Batch of 2 targets.
Target 1
Amino acid sequence: MFENDFFELLGIVDPADNVEFLATFLARREGARAVAFAPAGTAEEAHSALLERGLHPSELHPLGRQMELPEGPSIPRFSLIGLAVEDAPGLPASFVCAHLTPELMRRPEWLVHPNGADRLRGIHVLVERTAPLLPAYDRLFGIQHVTTTDTVATVHVGRHRIVFSTPDDFVTMHPGIAVDPGFPLPGIVALDLGIAHHEATADSLRQRQIAFDELPDGTLVVQANEANGAILFFSEG
């Protein structure tokens, strides 16, 4: 959990607990599975805006999850809107998630992490081709938030970015980083995490005996086989 965003670790505790979507994914591989977008306003406002753009959002779905806290059980509540595959192509799954009780999820002690990560900067997604994605993201976020360089497409979402590329282009951009030749497309291959202090993060990884590499620009990289199937970039700025 970070101050303004998060990533969530999922696993199966009870196979009978409506987890077919996760079981299907884990049968293929571990790694990053879906993207949750935060609405700028309420979930209802986001739903109306998506409809006005001619998109195909699901109806609002209320969700509550019991969470065990030191002071007793608590139930954070959310409002979810599913996004159709054709409206957010290239993402294996995506939805809008409005946190209705953010104070329960962003406790101060949960925002400080030993490895120094303090925000999610973006994600990297591998696809067969980027050109077919552009019209959909122009509609979803606005043409001014979508940029292309050769065959790489970047979608700017608030302070975050989604970088779409082919596997070959990803390896070209990040020499020395291994990508499984059988990586299923489309798929989220990497998370880009922000850090405050490069050396503090490097020291934390060393202390925990987590293997990492350093790119020429100073970015620290934890390969997928060290991080449950997702490449992790740690960078300042």
Note: Residues 20-109 form one domain.
Target 2
Amino acid sequence: MYGSNRGHDSIAIFKIDSLTGKLALIDIVSTFGSFPRDFQIEPSGKYLYVANQNSNTIVTFRIIPETGIIEATGDIVTIPLPVCIKFAIL
């Protein structure tokens, strides 16, 4: 499970125990921007995109399938006030 933290500009990554439903923190990763307003996993499940509203950037992260950990790809798009990310499935 992923959650954005606007207070310190990060994505928190949790593992969910399938028996108890309890969460265990795996990692906290910088969004490389300010005020992560929204994030989405694209339809293939390989990438997570973060819209950093106050720094006007969308940052791409690769999802490591075995662990769920994310790592920045270095791809950053500058766009005014990104607040929502949606994917069209054709």
Note: Residues 39 and 50 are 4 Å apart (CA to CA).
